[in-house]
Amino acid sequence: MNLDIRNVVPDDFMEIAKLAENCGHMSTMPNAVYHLFTRHFKKTSFVVEDTATHKILGFLLGFISQDDPEESYIHLLCLDPDLRGKGMGKSLINLFEDTVSKEGCEKIKLVTKPHNKISINFYIKMGFQSYKSPETVESEGLNVYKDYDGPDQDKIIFIKSVKKS
Ligand SMILES: CC(C)(COP(=O)(O)OP(=O)(O)OC[C@H]1O[C@@H](n2cnc3c(N)ncnc32)[C@H](O)[C@@H]1OP(=O)(O)O)[C@@H](O)C(=O)NCCC(=O)NCCS
After folding, report:
1. Which residues contact 11 (CB under 8 A, 6 or more apart)?
2. What pairs with residue 111 in β-bridges?
3. Nearest by Cα to 56 from 35, 73, 26, 78
4. How many angstroms from the chain centroid is the CA of residue 2?
5. Strand order in 46-50's β-sheet?
6. Which of 109, 35, 38 shows the shortest CA–CA distance to 71?
7. What pTM value is reported for the model?
8. SS3 sequence of the chain
9. Pairwise CA distance, residues 163 & 126, whole Å
10. Is the pLDDT of residue 87 over 80?
11. 150 lines ligand 1 (CB under 6 A)
12. Whether the CB of 119 sits within 6 Å of ligand 1
C-alpha cells in the first residue's frame, strides 16, 4: 500500500469523522468540529491517504494558539486500527512538530484521558512529559489534572518542547 501524508482540505471532514469512530478511547466530536479543522486549520492538520483508493487512514488535527503563538496544540490524532504500530503516528507527530517549529512555536500541548494507556505510552515515547501544577495529583508516575474538563473529567496534560527552526 502506498501512503501519502498531506494537509487537510475542507471535504475531508466526513471521512475523518467516520474514522474517528474507530479510534478507541479517543473522544469523538460532532462533525462540525472536524469541519472546523479542515476549513480553518489546514496548515497544522494532516491526513494519511492511500494513494490508490484515496481513502483516509489517519489524521492529526492541530493548531497554533491565538493567545500564545509560541504554543501549539494537538486536538486529535488517530490511525486506522490496521495501520497502527507501523510508524505513521510518529510521522504525523514529526510533521506537526516540524511545521509548528517553522512557525515559531516552542512547545506542543495536548490532553489525554488517564485510562487511555495506548495514547499515554505513545506520547511518552514521542518525548512528551505530563505537566505538573498545583491542580494535579500524581498517579502511576503521571500528573493528573482533576476535573480538567468539568466534574469527573480528569485529564493528563502533555507538553513537549520544540526548537524554533
Ligand atoms: C496512539 C496512536 C496514534 C499511535 O500511532 P501508531 O502509528 O500506532 O504509533 P507508531 O507506530 O508511530 O509508534 C511510534 C512509537 O510509539 C510506540 N508505541 C506505539 N503504540 C504504543 C503502545 N501502545 N505502547 C507502547 N509504545 C507504543 C512505538 O513502539 C514506537 O516507538 P519507536 O519509535 O521507538 O519504534 C494509535 O495507536 C491510535 O490511533 N490510537 C487510537 C486513537 C488514540 O488513542 N489517539 C490518541 C488520543 S488523541
Report:
1. 38
2. 157
3. 78
4. 23
5. 3-7, 46-50, 56-64, 71-79, 107-112, 156-161, 129-130
6. 109
7. 0.96
8. CCEEEEECCHHHHHHHHHHHCCCCCCCCCCHHHHHHHHHHCHHHCEEEEECCCCCEEEEEEEEECCCCCCEEEEEEEEECHHHCCCCHHHHHHHHHHHHHHHCCCCEEEEEECCCCHHHHHHHHHCCCEECCCCCEEEECCEEEECCCCCCCCCEEEEEEECCCC
9. 15
10. yes
11. no
12. yes
Which of 25, 85, 27, 105 has the alpha carbon at shortest distance from 61?
A: 27
- Which of 53, 48, 50, 51 is CA-nearest to residue 93? 48
pLDDT (mean) for 30-43? 97
Q: Whose CA is nearest to atom 19 of ligand 1?
A: 122
> Which cell goes with 28?
469523538
- Does the structure show a pLDDT above 90 at 68? yes
Which ligand 1 atom lies nearest to the CA of residue 119?
A: 1
C-alpha cell at 154: 480528569
Relative to beta strand 136-139, strand 56-64 is: unpaired
Q: What's the 117 CA to ligand 1 centre distance in angstroms?
A: 10
The pLDDT value given to residue 26: 77
